[in-house]
Amino acid sequence: MRDTYQRDINYLRVSVTDRCNLRCVYCMPAEGVKALPHDEILRLEEIETIVRAASLTGVKKIRLTGGEPLVRLGLESLIQRISNIPGIDDLTLTTNALLLPGHASSLKEAGVKRVNISLDTLRTERYREITRGGDLATAWEGINAALDAGMHPVKINTVVMRGFNDDEVVAMARLTLNRPIHVRFIEVMPIGSSNSWTNGRFVPTEEIIAQISSKLGPLLPAKMSSGSGPAKYYQLKGAEGTIGFIASMSEHFCQSCNRLRLTANGALRPCLYDSREVDLKTPLRAGADLKELADLFMDAVALKPDRHHMLEGWRDKSRVMSQIGG
Ligand code: SAM
Known about the structure:
Elements: E1 11-15, H1 44-56, E2 61-65, H2 75-83, E3 90-95, H3 104-110, E4 114-118, H4 124-131, H5 136-148, E5 154-160, H6 169-178, E6 181-187, H7 205-216, E7 220-221, E8 232-235, E9 243-246, E10 259-262, E11 267-269, E12 278-279, H8 281-285, H9 290-302, H10 317-324
Parallel strand pairs: 1-2, 1-10, 2-3, 3-4, 4-5, 5-6, 6-9
Antiparallel strand pairs: 7-8, 8-9, 10-11, 11-12
S-adenosylmethionine (SAM) binds at residues 20, 26-27, 65-66, 68, 94-96, 118, 157, 159, 186, 188-189, 191-192, 198.
């Protein structure tokens, strides 16, 4: 399906739960966010029905996310159901990896081809601090479990934050040298429940690239075989993995945005930074059929803005603008 700006919308990110087993400082307040009542959350078969409707509109790619998707009971069975939907040819997961040990193989068998793992630091204490209590060794067990299960590619997503982990970008980049690990550096965005926390933390992609190449040599352009999305990929000479950059703020890629988001309580969001949404849960529970749900997808697509306006909403705007030359 095409939106007003002629973008082909073929990708749906599905939040399967609002709950998370971590409390990352830039994502959530310390006390967490109030969990949605159980009945508000889509049941697994409702998610399946919505993905079926999505596939009728041309959605081919599904990413399961959250909250933390692996805390959702029955996730494997949902994955199996989605894998069997005609037209869905790519099914992936974004996770903090803590629950991957012991589950990676069954997730792969159920139909997850590859995972994106969020990891912002290689230091045990810092990990505990950023995630408010997470255990880095367990996250690494999860990363290794994904590699051992043959998930490919395994991507590590690192949000770079000034004064927090910007001194680790070279160490993170080194991870790609001897293992098929693909590290992607993401610019911090003023989203989540800790918007003000991000003030003063922004590090532009250009600066990260300069740091890495001055220490590890030139970054050579590289291609990802699958799921390249908005990242630009490079590789260190002789490295097994790649290094990607997602410059959501300094060089937004909205002109090629192909996605919609389904919230855990059954609403379609046309843009990460747009609070407008199209309710699917109510019509679904009132008996809407696949065609009617597919029409609601078209309504959501019609709401897609030409670009996000995250900078405009950021108290840190002028500082960030000066760093990205805007
Ligand atoms: N729990 C899963 C995980 O940890 O990957 C999935 C949900 S998590 C919200 C998805 C991704 O959003 C993570 O990679 C996280 O780092 C990223 N994220 C959250 N808040 C962000 C922010 N303010 N700026 C940039 N990325 C952010």
